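ok so heres the complex, three chains, lmk if somethin looks off
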Amino acid sequence: MSAHVVAVKTYLGIFIALLVLTGLTTGAAFIDFGDLHTGIPLLRVIPLNTVVALAIAVVKMLLVILFFMHVKYSSGLTKIVVMAGFLFLAILVSFTLADELTRGWSPEAGAWNTALPTILPLLHGLF
Amino acid sequence: MSTTVIPELPGQEIPAESRVNYLNASYGVKSWLLTTDHKRIALLYLGSITLMFFVGGFFAVLMRLHLIEPQGALVAPETYNKLFTMHGVIMVFFFLVPSIPATLGNFLVPMMIGARDLAFPRLNLLSWYIYVIGACFTLYAVISGGVDTGWTFYTPYSSTFSHTSVVPTALGVFITGFSSILTGLNFVVTIHKMRAPGLTWFRLPLFIWAMYATSIIFILGTPVIAITIFLLGLERLLHIGIFDPAIGGDPILFQHMFWFYSHPAVYIMILPGMGVMSELITCFSRKRIFGYTFVAFSSLAIAIISFLVWGHHMFVTGQSIYAGLIFSVLSFLVAIPSAVKVFNWTATLYKGSISYDAPMLYALGFIGLFTMGGLTGLFLASLATDVHLNGTYFIVAHFHYIMVGGAVMAYLGGIHFWWPKITGRMYPDGWARFAALVIFVGFNLTFFPQFVLGYLGMPRRYAVYPGEFQVLNVMSSAGASILGIGYLIPLIYLLWSIRYGPIAGPNPWGAKGLEWETPSPPPTENFEEIPLVTEDAYNYANVGGSRG
Amino acid sequence: MADMAVHPAHPPGFKHQFEDMEQQRDADSLGMWVFLVTEVMFFGGLFATYIIYRALYLPAFETGSRLLNVKFGAVNTAVLIGSSLTMALAIHAAQAGKKKSEQVMYLVLTMILGAVFLFLKFAFEWRADYNEHLVPGFHFIIRPEWGAAGPHVPMFFCFYFFMTGLHALHMIIGFGILSTLTVMAHRGRFNSEYYAPLEVSGLYWHFVDIVWIFLFPLLYLIGGRFAMPGVH
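and the predicted structre for the whole thing:
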């Protein structure tokens, strides 16, 4: 536990910042930021509204964690514990999404899946 | 708390009964049910867990009796479904998951690190009460008609179609999950903050590293199954829910959420046993552990990688093959730290001064049986062979080799090893070794035929089977009866020894470790003075082969 | 007892399994953080399934999201952020050795703001949803204007009620904690030496705030509101 006493001014400043960000994110919901088109599989179309909303949420969360919850003034162990929680949540989401979003994929012929079926009968012949 | 100080003159051995220890510091039911002493709480857990073990074992006995005949010898198929479900639910959630952490862990963690108790003793007691309440819900489900979904509760059968006591069972599991979470929380904080002066991380007994790694899994994994069961219960009660295909729900998503915990859970079940192993092997070879750092980090590696492999339970249920590829590769990876441990234990045995006391017999059994179970896991991690072996008795044999041949053997080995410390009494050595051998023989006779049955194609969770499998099934059932007797023998002599066993001194095995530097049984506050630690763990080089 | 001679009178609130107050404070704080990690995974499981179904049924989830009342959502967000501020100020009051009446005032304010949040949610939002037949399992009506996305809209509302319901449950538990703290503060238990229960409960309350900081955009704001003119 930090013996560090955070100034009331700091708390008020963070509070104002959080309110401003809330207003911003609410307003941003009514503006169309469009989509970002990338060539990355599973991320071909990135909806920017979602990115903006989540980015603002992450900033708000960081302000609460660092200042209201005093993590900025806490030991490295506390920081690792906080990060661990989010890391494993990310694992749950990403690996499950990896399944759900690739169920519809059908294998296309490529070097990685045609080389072996070609080579195996030849190897059979050797033995 | 009593503050009587009994003067101990040199050369005079004070009998255990007249020394104040945690067992006789206070009397009466209230002093046990309202205790905050981690040692008493460990015994409360020991009692409840042993009870649940025999309830779960009873279902196993009924199953094996039923399977003597191809058309089923004992019960109707619907009842058989309930038997394997309840056997699984009780053994997994109410025996294996809490077994070593809640009994040996609770008892030993503070003692091994030189602390007076865990960080949060009242939370520890609460965790036991939560376990008991959860167990009551599940036992209620058992007597109110049972549950037949399999311990894996797959949807949509469990959420929509089953007419059995799913909600009480699920509620029992949900509640007991919080017991594990609190235990894990307690251990992590205790190990971080309450180590004795001089006890750096790399001087800790490997049992503590194992408990720490297990606690990480408790903390990160259990809440996910809690929310999954919560959603399953809501779906069953409200008839609207998120695994219902009628509104677009995906039953496979249930499996993802379920196995996200349940795979790491199997490491919850084995890691503590591995911790016990490091203690037993070193003591009974009178040698330092080979590769301390490797064993310590392998515990952490197992805990972390265990969260990356859960999809290997879902290769044939409809998961995408691309996800399957990722999970398969990672499953091979998770075998490596386990193998590292087996190599290190074996290297520790090499040129050690080995004695074959009962705990060591269990430890040696563990090495062989865990290795077999682990290697057979590799066949299951391979996508192609898993297609053939999934859903067969091969899987049943694989996990029983690890859970029973591994975890239960380690649990029994640990119970025997620390029994004199816990009770102040020794058990009869001859009976103990005999029981260990009976268990070993019975176990292999029960489960080795199941590898063959699985390979030949006999499906699991079936109440009937083709006639050509009968011989192997009868062998397995015969083994089960021997195994059952093997488990009853220690129950009898351990209870007997509490009253009639010879009094044990502080360190009957001549073992290294802070817990052995206290009287047996220890006083409530564990240590008169908090010790100062100056040497590494397992510093056996100085002991000249004689046992104190 | 042997350790009584070594350690002279311990401050009130000292627990004897610890060696000193500093160890106790460190342990209490780490304990609450570890508990919050379990809560991250608990809520996280719900967030994970929400994210997955949103990816699979985007039109239905956007439709559902647009049916939520952004005004109430935004006001509630501000209310909760305010309650986090008052909670931080309550801890600060104890830390800085202020009078107990100031500690009590901030704790009571925190509870009032929390109550406002729940009142707005239950009395306005949830009641309106029930009246508009948007509660799955309670006469949910699929509206024709939802088109092809219609059959999956109940799924969105399942999540809306599960997630905000679980959050509300945590707030109610928080009330219990805050009431206990208020009584303790009123009895003068907290000062600049001993305020661990406040600090630790503050962590819990801030966590509940953070959950809402994510719930608000994920449920209310990413439904393509710009596409529907004049929507509330």
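quick notes: Chain B touches chain C through 47 residues (CB under 8 Å). thats all i got rn
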